């Protein structure tokens, strides 16, 4: 995995949410959470595994909605942030945080209804192997996102601390075919790159987001979206 040492640093974990999901980044957080909920609903009583759960943004949200959730991450520092977040929440479901390797998931076959992986595949050195392992422990559904090759993200990708793996639509389609997954739905979003939203106040980011959504919803501009959300089912 790219950037493992950077990602596991204590100071990165402590500042992760503030740097990415404060100011205009709140719009990113809101959209990503809605994408996950739209794909999984109804959430209540579902057995869900989140790969690379980080600080628990999605795991806590899903547990609040009544799911039985396990969050797995390689970073002990990130997991501690997630546990702190969970302690502050009034959870209707159950939530467990585990440290582990996404390439060797410590669960039996078909153990979960749904497996999700957000902000993960851009770091994956062998996405097919990871997707196969996710499929092994899922009985129904896999939800994940990818950063897109033909997008504004490609302009500044070289400047990121660990870089990113960028995907074309055809590459993702090939991955799904190789791992026997059926595409249920794919949503494209964010013509304007994440970095801009994170660097400006929410009040300024909101009108930009409104314009971004209006323009990005057209068939032609969809091809240049920064991110795609993939909802897949097992064949």
Automatic annotation (TrEMBL):
SUPFAM superfamilies documented for this protein: S-adenosyl-L-methionine-dependent methyltransferases
Protein name: Methyltransferase
Upper classification of the organism: Archaea, Methanobacteriati, Methanobacteriota, Stenosarchaea group, Halobacteria
Residues in the signal sequence: none
InterPro entries in alphabetical order: Methyltransf_11, SAM-dependent_MTases_sf
Organism in which the protein naturally occurs: Natrarchaeobaculum sulfurireducens
The keyword DNA repair belongs to this UniProt entry's keyword annotation: no
Record key words, sorted: Methyltransferase, Transferase
Start and end residues of each Methyltransferase type domain: 49-137
């Amino acid at each position: 995995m790219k950037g493992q040492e950077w990602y596991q640093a204590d100071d990165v974990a402590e500042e992760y949410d503030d740097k990415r999901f404060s100011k205009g980044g709140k719009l990113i957080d809101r959209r990503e959470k809605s994408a996950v909920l739209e794909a999984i609903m109804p959430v209540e009583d579902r057995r869900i595994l989140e790969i690379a759960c980080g600080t628990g943004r999605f795991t806590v949200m899903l547990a609040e909605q009544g799911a039985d959730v396990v969050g797995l991450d390689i970073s002990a520092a990130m997991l501690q942030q997630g546990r702190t977040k969970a302690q502050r929440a009034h959870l209707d479901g159950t939530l467990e945080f585990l440290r582990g390797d996404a390439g060797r998931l410590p669960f039996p076959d078909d153990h979960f209804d749904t497996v999700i992986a957000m902000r993960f595949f851009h770091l994956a050195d062998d996405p097919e192997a990871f997707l196969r392992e996710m499929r092994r422990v899922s009985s129904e559904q896999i939800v994940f996102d990818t950063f897109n090759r033909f997008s504004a993200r490609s302009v500044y990708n070289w400047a990121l601390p660990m870089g990113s793996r960028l995907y074309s639509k055809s590459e993702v389609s090939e991955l799904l075919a190789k791992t026997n997954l059926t595409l249920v739905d794919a949503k494209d979003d964010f013509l304007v790159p994440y970095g801009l939203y994170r660097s400006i106040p929410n009040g300024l980011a909101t009108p930009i987001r409104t314009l971004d959504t209006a323009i990005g919803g057209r068939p032609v501009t969809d091809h240049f979206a920064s991110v795609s959300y993939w909802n897949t089912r097992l064949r």
